[in-house]
Amino acid sequence: MLSLATEIAGRYFASCLMNAAGIRCQSRRDLDALVQSSAGAYVTKSATPAPRSGNPAPRMATFPNGSFNSMGLPNNGLAYYLDYVLADEQKRPGKTNFLSLAGTSLADNLAMLHQINDSAYTGFVELNLSCPNVPGHPQTGYDFEATRQTLEAVFDFYQKPLGVKLPPYFDLAHFDAIAAVLNQFPLSFVTTINSVGNGLLVNVETETVVIKPKGGFGGIGGASVKPTALANVRALSQRLNPAIAVIGVGGIMSGKDAFEHILCGASMLQIGTQFGYEGVAVFERIAKELGDIMLLKGYSSIDDFRGKLKTLA
Ligand code: SIN
């Protein structure tokens, strides 16, 4: 019997496929579509304490094998998403989903977490330490000391299951350094990677950048970032306490990409760019393609091959 089920921090998910924060998860309508889809869970658009309209348009673009954006955290504010997940928990008790937070300061993050801690919410929080698109606010995940201070302040009071969304790292010393910080805390999961921040696309015809915010700099997603995502999933899986699950995101367009992420150690897979293009049908398609690969290889569950990537002798 083939199963794509997975577990994170003792919570069961019937499918290891879900959306990535930011894509088609900003409005109730988007979230309702995810609830009705075959995704194993959903994550809400990263929230700030108050609604934000985000950066000026044009703020997203596509290019061959990739997506590009500097959205700047447009969202409907924490109350909107907290209301949504609370109502959903009442309707579907026992279902775990992910409430994403991306305050632009530690104070904002702590204020939102206090609100969630004091609420009836029982699901996961994905604390986004890696948005590259807010002018004047560097990504916390690239500052190891700030990340440690953030998590110290969070776990000083926060009692519910929480994970962090990380930026991509590019050096083995940085994998060691961030893992050493994360291993000090009772995290349920890490989500890796956010977009590869501050890339630049050029329009040769107009001799201009292609998006307006930040002088044209933006985060890269989609197929182009898969090798970076796989490296981060693999490197963090090898370094983190086994109690911290790794959620893989980056360049998952097919069942083969999903299989690769799991082989590198991912327990759950988030689909961003391709979900944006394809909508909720992507979850069924990729589940089918992943299941077909598993059947061919004689695997019946993702645990049969999760983290079992081999190196060459
Ligand atoms: C954005 O809204 O700018 C994207 C969010 C993110 O990359 O974390």
Automatic annotation (TrEMBL):
Cofactors: FMN
Primary residence: cytoplasm
Catalytic activity: (S)-dihydroorotate + fumarate = orotate + succinate
Involved pathway(s): Pyrimidine metabolism; UMP biosynthesis via de novo pathway
Domain of life: Bacteria
Documented EC number(s): 1.3.98.1
This protein's UniProt keywords: Cytoplasm, Flavoprotein, FMN, Oxidoreductase, Pyrimidine biosynthesis
Top-level enzyme category: oxidoreductase
Subunit details: Homodimer.
Family: Belongs to the dihydroorotate dehydrogenase family. Type 1 subfamily.
Stated name of the protein: dihydroorotate oxidase (fumarate)
